[in-house]
Amino acid sequence: MNEEVRLMKGNEAIAHAAIRYGADGYFGYPITPQSEILETLEALMPWETTGMVVLQAESEVASINMVYGGAATGKAVMTSSSSPGVSLMQEGISYIAAAELPALIVNVMRGGPGLGTIHPSQSDYFQATKGGGHGDYHLIVLAPSTVQEMADFVALGFDLAFKYRTPAMILADGVVGQMMEKVVLPPQRQRRTPEQIAEQCPWAATGKGSRGNRNVVTSLELDSALMEKNNERFQRTYAEIERNEVRYETYYTEDADYLIVAFGSVARICLKSIEMARAEGIRIGLIRPITLWPFPYEAIAGLGAKVKGIQVVELNAGQMIEDVRLAVERDKPVRHFGRMGGIVPNPGEILEAFKRDFINK
Amino acid sequence: MNHEDIKSQGTKVYSRPRLLDDRTMHYCPGCSHGVVHKLVCEVLDEMGLENDAIGVAPVGCAVFAYNYIDIDWIEAAHGRAPAVATAAKRLNPGCAVFTYQGDGDLAAIGTAETIHAANRGENIVIIFINNGIYGMTGGQMAPTTLEGMKTATTPYGRRADLNGYPLNITPLLAQLPGTCFVSRQSVHTAAAARKCKAAIRKAFEGSMAAKGTAVIEVVGTCSSGWKMTPAKANDWMAQHMFEAYPPGDLKDTL
Lengths: 361, 254
Prior knowledge:
The structure holds 2 protein chains of 2 kinds.
Chain A: E1 4-9, H1 10-21, E2 25-28, H2 36-44, E3 53-56, H3 60-72, E4 77-81, H4 83-88, H5 90-98, E5 104-109, H6 125-129, E6 140-142, H7 147-164, E7 168-173, H8 174-178, E8 180-185, H9 194-200, E9 216-217, H10 224-244, E10 248-251, E11 258-261, H11 265-279, E12 284-289, E13 291-293, H12 297-304, E14 309-314, H13 320-328, E15 334-338, H14 347-359
Helix pairs in contact in A: 1-2, 1-7, 3-5, 11-14, 12-13
Chain B: H1 3-9, H2 33-46, E1 53-57, E2 72-75, H3 81-91, E3 96-102, H4 103-109, H5 111-120, E4 125-130, E5 133-134, E6 140-141, H6 160-163, H7 169-175, E7 179-186, H8 190-208, E8 213-219, H9 223-226, H10 230-244, E9 248-252
Parallel strand pairs in B: 1-2, 1-3, 3-4, 4-8, 7-8
Antiparallel strand pairs in B: 5-6, 7-9
Helix pairs in contact in B: 2-8, 3-5, 4-5
């Protein structure tokens, strides 16, 4: 398959991108608003073409443990779900992080808590960026704001996961999952051969083969001194990721008197609000974190130093705002505007909230 | 006649299996795990599967199986071994993938994964040690604990009205069209261990021929958990456990 321009949903783009990346396996369980990922993969039947395994599991618990099993053999494997399902996966994600396995997890967020709603939300920010499961670990968290990024972040997520031997998450909201846009799908990549896997993943449990010594994939270490060493190694990996992999985009920040921080689909709505504000002579800029972990603390600190105030806009009660406050260390007023329960704000509403907080105080 | 003379005159008829590491095990005296580990090693070696085997270890006493059997291993979360093995096998169909699980792992927390892996007919072997108790955590009630049996969490004996009935899960698995061979064995005598080994071998043959899921339940002892001497535990098992969990083949399509 060559590069191809298509019109499709963000969820469908994930499925196409996974096959074209040369992923080895997908394991998932249906849940709104992301079931199109599994449906699309089943319809495309990649096992007939690339040999990719696609399996509908009996639960999200089983899905993530299938991902653990596949990743333990050095394969490029992934799952996807939405908020309640991702909560069920947290134990498995912690194991994957602790066993230092590469894997890709997609969360197309819906409103919570509880069964909540099937409508869009960004209320799993804390869960995704602060660990989520038990123990000291991080995921590399990528936040797409377009259907194109839904496709592109599959390859980026897998590449980063394998580079650092740690799970990566695409943290999308229901808007990006469900909306249709133009997307350029990349050309088909070959799945890695067993020889390439043996070279890239010498730790993988693939059968001893000609290796001679056995590989054991485990997160267990009862000797506390050794377990502390393991934790120190994890933290060194996270520090390296923080040094190398911060990604963000800025818009209209050169002359900005104020800054909006937003991610995912909300950043695009905010861009419209900013254009409306600029028409009124209010100069607002936007920074859109692409990696929510590692978080662009320094970029926000730098831009924050030049503005009078910072508005954080999210589909939640105020989660990313904590990281923004950490970035500017209380030097600048940081205010929050959010909608919850599956409600997506319109540009005028965001501008009104901004003016309430900073202009008409 | 000294030791060397005896050795030189005799014919060696038994030795530690090649794949079983020569190291001190953490298992208690009389525990069935050591014998079952030995049988798995012998079968894998005899079938030439050493370099293609991937074991999936459980949470429970056998969590450290990877320290004793010289093949590649994946240590799974509690109960999730069949899901882990599902992906490992589907992505590496040439490998001999098996889980090694206890009764709490397989029949309590992992019931869903066990039943669904077997129902999909995953080409894996499930080795299920049923000793009716949680050994690793200190002797609490297992799903397979017999009625009346005293454990740390049923100090006056298991009562069906309070604790539910013993879960006889293996016949349930035998009903599923995805299983190719389901057998219940024990290792409390040399003869029983020989039969158990034959069953384990047949299970690996079935899974390597892609005939579906093969399940070997081994009714075992836990002398520490049962608070009995190893010899007494063997007698007690034959007397009581076999009544609820009689040995024999439950399904054989091979």
